[in-house]
Amino acid sequence: MSKVRKAVIPVAGLGTRFLPATKAVPKELLPIVDVPAIQVVIEEVVAAGIEQVILITGRSKGAIMDHFDHSYELEDTLRRRGQTELIEAIDRISEMVRAVAIRQKAPLGLGHAVLCAKDTIGDEPFVVLLPDDIIDAKRPATAQLVEQYERYGAGVVSLMKVPSEDTSMYGIIAGDRMDERTHRVFTLVEKPRPENAPSNLAVIGRYVLPPEIFGYLEATRPGHGGEIQLTDALQALATERGLVGYEFEGTRHDIGDKFGFLKANIEYALKRSDLGPALRAYLETIDK
């Protein structure tokens, strides 16, 4: 079985929910405290042993790649000021991972975005991460899913229990429980009404996929708006080759939602020794 070495991260979205902030700044560079959200996601895959990140980009997203490149003018200024700690911090970002960008020339869905990476992935398994989902975990969520892929030799989707009234916001699975956290997935239902949901297990934005997924994506008929849905290809994969669902350990933050973005910033700040105590004291004054 091939080692999982590559990750695909779709970042072509317009970020309209965060306008006007995202008019000129990609939403993926909005900070979680002082770290761009996309860096938080890439730090997760690097900690899981991923060697190459493939960013599926769109127009006006060049600043994302710039963030992971060297900035010689900035580095020179910091060096002349003697700010060695800051130089080390930005050097670490530049050397963090081998990243490439592939342009998705039209907004044709998540399945199409993944399909754009076919030639770069080749005949290898790979991870897909949706950057709107940040997962705060002691052990990286990506590493947890890769372990299940290596254990079962089948594609893996990350799962999270959601309140029954929220099933219409997620893709929901039907399947059999294999152990405390692992499920054999038979069916994926996209955003079912609570009374029609087969379970309360929602698919969250982390996947480990075999290269065969590309064949299923190529065979997937475009749906509404001409989009190719990853869910349709996952359903075919589950039916013909098997698919595993894993309830990851950790806390998921939906930073594609304004309130979720605010909560993530607060929770990450509370964990920091330089910010946590003062922020906690301030929050207590608000409660009063």
Write up this protein.
With 288 residues, the protein is of the alpha/beta class. The protein has one domain: Spore Coat Polysaccharide Biosynthesis Protein SpsA, Chain A. The protein is 36% helix and 24% strand. The strands form three sheets. A nine-stranded mixed beta sheet has the order 5-4-1-6-11-8-12-10-9. A two-stranded antiparallel ribbon has the order 2-3. A hairpin with a 2-residue loop joins strand 2 and strand 3. The longest helix is centred in the last third of the chain and has 13 residues. It is globular, with a radius of gyration of 20 Å. The mean pLDDT is 92.
Features:
288 residues; alpha/beta; Spore Coat Polysaccharide Biosynthesis Protein SpsA, Chain A; nine-stranded mixed sheet; two-stranded antiparallel sheet; 36% helix
